[in-house]
Amino acid sequence: MAESATPGRRRGTELEHAIYVATLDELAANGYGRLTMDGIAARAGTGKAALYRRWPGKQPLVLDALHYALPPLPEPNPEHSTRDNLAGALGAFNDVLSGRTLIPGIEFIVDMLHEPELRAMFAKRIITPRLERIEAILRAGVHSGEFGPEIVHPLAARTGPALILQSFLLTGEPPSPREIDLIIDTVLRRTAM
């Protein structure tokens, strides 16, 4: 049955964005374990059927909402140094942890650890492309002759995000700009493997 075009009724992209925001708000308020399609629909001001027409369940909806909320990684600029391009990529990750995006925060990430299927989907769809971007930045630095091939090793792309996350877990605060500089120094310095 087609939706009628009643005045004030949200449809299409407008409704989808409202559902994403409602999903993120519900995640922040209740965590993934207590997240329900009913709660999302109520917060979005729509019917549950509108959700199920687009998503078969809460996992794909949560992943789409997270993808919606994450700012795109800045494209590496070939005119910039590897360090500057890396600063852009790591700064975007730091923005997520510091609450500068709609992502519900570290509590959601911890909550997700108890949901292996969601964690795997999150890693594949959200984390892996960002790690691939960091690795591409490092490889471009090698290709340009700015760095030797030793900066691209199996853990190179993971090092910066891991140090940012560790800093947040230990202090409750995202790293400062000075600490981000030190993290970049660590990524660009070849460590003994």
From TrEMBL:
Pfam families in the record: TetR_C_11, TetR_N
Residues of the signal peptide: none
GO molecular function, one term: transcription cis-regulatory region binding
InterPro entries: Homeodomain-like_sf (IPR009057), HTH-type_TetR-like_transc_reg (IPR050109), HTH_TetR (IPR001647), Tet_transcr_reg_TetR-rel_C_sf (IPR036271), TetR_C (IPR011075)
Alphabetically ordered keywords of this record: DNA-binding, Transcription, Transcription regulation
Residues in the DNA-binding region annotation: 36-55
Domain of life: Bacteria
Boundaries of every HTH tetR-type domain copy: 13-73
PANTHER family according to UniProt: HTH-TYPE TRANSCRIPTIONAL REGULATOR RUTR, TRANSCRIPTIONAL REGULATORY PROTEIN-RELATED
Protein name per Swiss-Prot or TrEMBL: Transcriptional regulator
Organism name: Streptomyces noursei (Streptomyces albulus)
